[in-house]
């Protein structure tokens, strides 16, 4: 079951990365700021952007996505 889940996640990651590349968007760096926040550095044709995310919110979203994939 884990192998199937990893394969599905890898495939989805590749597809999303390819779609972003079509729009000339690239994720350059993911960096943990502290125990509560992480910064994501994204390069776009117009400018570089740093997006800050709450680690707890990311954790909950990943848990939800994993449950969706497991229940398929």
What does this structure look like?
With about 70 residues, the protein is an alpha+beta fold. It contains 2 helices and 3 strands, in the order H-E-E-E-H. It has a 3-stranded antiparallel sheet with strand order 1-2-3. A hairpin with a 4-residue loop joins strand 2 and strand 3.
What is the overall silhouette?
flat
Q: What is the terminal-to-terminal distance?
A: 11 Å
Q: Provide the structure class.
A: alpha+beta
User: Strand order within the widest sheet?
Assistant: 1-2-3
Poorly predicted runs: none
Radius of gyration: 14 Å
Number of strands: 3
Q: How much helix, percentage-wise, in residues?
A: 40-55%
Query: Biggest sheet, in brief?
Result: 3 strands, antiparallel
Q: How would you spell out the order of helices and strands?
A: HEEEH
Instruction: Provide the residue-averaged pLDDT.
Output: 91
As a percent range, the share of strand residues is 25-35%
Total DSSP helices = 2
Key descriptive features of the protein:
72 residues; alpha+beta; 3-stranded antiparallel β-sheet; 2 helices; flat
Give a short synopsis of this structure:
This protein is an alpha+beta fold and 72 residues long. Helices cover 51% and strands 29% of the residues.
Task: Produce the secondary structure layout.
Layout: H1 2-22, E1 26-32, E2 37-43, E3 48-54, H2 55-70
Antiparallel strand pairs: 1-2, 2-3
